[in-house]
């Protein structure tokens, strides 16, 4: 089985932007499932868990700043369950795709990753754009519909269909995203 | 007014791939309008006309090869009206976005282009992906719905909405895409 | 005068790698001058000061981690005088060029920067490689020889000649790198 | 043995630029050896032969144009022995690195190439810059000194040392660049 990386996109969000309320409703419906998938991925030796998060235009912001600002925002309840574990790669991004202006492609190749599991927000924006960039770089794509949040449900559904039909993405629920663990691994890689 | 580049995407197509028939129907409905817009753009001193076309996996193919193969395909009637003028930049591409693995970004910046007018096929695939890449690189986007062709009309419409809503694209008919010519320019730039 | 960005490359270094001793000697000879130039750039409204630093393969490392590890290394005396001001953009990099896998190009264009002032280490490696990437992206280049450190002095000199001759870089001492300040600016931009 | 790609850089040159005379002298000394290596690479099933050549700012130029202009230049004797075989990938480039604004990285990965053999001109410019870009993308590098041409011999030698020392390049004569053929292959791959 090809090595998998789970990518968590833009979940550190103060939820104070336009459409934040609408988005918050969608995130509320996935955050528990996503938190569970993050925990399972983090335990696995054969899965890389990688956070990629917008810096919201502040290039001096540290990882701690981004965490603190998200927790101090309007929806800490949507942030706490999905905080990045301390030992996880954390890549700041500056535009919509998780690949643009980041080291994500380099990291995936250095780790021997062939398949990416895309989660987070927003389905019809950063998730879709990241899927596109993964696809043209020839990574296989999985997207669990119960771990991505949309602003506009119809566009979110269209985005999922585009990924499935035109990017050969596997659109499967979180419960079926990770391959069965080969063994009960006591510790984590690296 | 910012300098505009009209990008013609993937119109050299032998129409022998999966979904070619369905796509051909959509292309048939735009090819006359697109041919007219290409002619107007080509006449203008203040508009760059740039073709970006897939090499269909043949990295040894020349521009002449791609033209000849499209004309020898199943729908030469959809190719002839939109052939690239001899003096137009012609960039081979290898994946779905017109920016990936091409010199398009460099060319646009070297020409001082700030706004791209995206045309061609397929609305919900290469046109959408090229719009995304233009958007994150901060180019303004225009898309004339009467000059882009879809395979799946519903996904094509969703793609146009995504461009309009999430990439600030101006979705306007071909007749209103180019600014009024400042003057009757006898010759062409360069 | 075009907007300038001063780039400080890889100065957060624990100096425990191969050639660290040799490099340390060269850094010792520039660190005071570089510290002064950083201070002057930081004061200026019309100059962007940007740190780009290797993450040394640790994608979970925060900015604070990188600072702490450098200070806990073998040459804190070479780190303290050039620590990044808290409000400075700080971009982690993963390979040798400051542009590869980082948001540097995006940030420079977003700020309207046309000219980069390259400083730090190693002259014949990351500084040269960053100069190359700046050059092909059409940024003007300045390199103060008294603010870059080499491992091999002869290769460092060859690198400076390559930048000067083949990348049109201005190789001028730190004292002459920044244009005269237009006015005594009390505060800083942003 | 990892799959190898031989890259021929900028050998289609009309030799009418600044320094062309000086460069021509150096090219004259390598062109026979380079022609031989191209022929051997072209015969091999396990080696990809790829031309990457500047378009000299003409984005409408076809492959045939670039060949014809080089042959009509001041040194057709330096062009004829190294013309691209008809079935070879041919990538136009627009700046100094063979990777920037081209599909080279994509092509190498799609072919499973892990090692690049860099040849052509100019050692201390496009060859060095392409080596840098190959290196940060984690391709192994070989450079035969008898198949690269310099404008300034001392900078050419410094460039070779940089590649050897800082990019782990194997600097070995053309005669030892290609691994022994596994078998007498009657035909060519693809």
Our measurement of the CA-to-CA distance between the termini of chain A, rounded to an integer number of angstroms, reads: 20 Å
Please mark out the parts of chain A with pLDDT under 50 across 5 or more consecutive residues, or reply none. 184-190
Q: What kind of oligomer do you see?
A: homotetramer
Mean pLDDT of chain A: 94
Number of helices of chain A: 7
> What share of residues are in beta strands of chain A?
15-25%
Classify the secondary structure makeup of chain A into a structural class. alpha/beta
Dominant shape of chain A: globular
Largest interface: A-C, 23 and 23 residues
Total strands of chain A: the figure is: 7
Largest sheet of chain A: 7 strands, parallel
Give the C-alpha Rg of chain A.
15 Å
What is the element string of chain A, with H for helices and E for strands? EHHEHHEHEHEEHE
């Amino acid at each position: 089985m090809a090595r998998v990386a789970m990518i968590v996109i833009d979940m550190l969000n103060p939820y104070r932007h336009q459409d934040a309320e609408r988005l918050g409703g969608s995130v509320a419906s996935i955050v528990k499932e996503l938190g569970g998938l993050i925990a399972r991925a983090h335990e696995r030796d054969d899965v890389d868990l990688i956070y990629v998060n917008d810096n919201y235009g502040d290039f001096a912001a540290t990882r701690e700043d981004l965490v603190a600002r998200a927790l101090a925002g309007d929806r800490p309840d949507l942030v706490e369950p999905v905080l990045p574990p301390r030992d996880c790669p954390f890549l700041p991004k500056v535009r919509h795709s998780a690949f643009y202006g980041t080291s994500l492609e380099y990291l995936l190749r250095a780790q021997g990753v062939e398949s990416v599991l895309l989660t987070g927000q927003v389905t019809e924006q950063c998730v879709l754009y990241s899927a596109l960039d993964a696809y043209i770089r020839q990574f296989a794509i999985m997207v669990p519909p119960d771990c991505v949040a949309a602003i506009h449900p119809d566009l979110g559904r269209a985005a999922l269909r585009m990924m499935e039909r035109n990017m050969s993405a596997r659109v499967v629920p979180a419960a079926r995203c990770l391959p069965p663990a080969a063994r009960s691994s006591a510790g984590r890689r690296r």
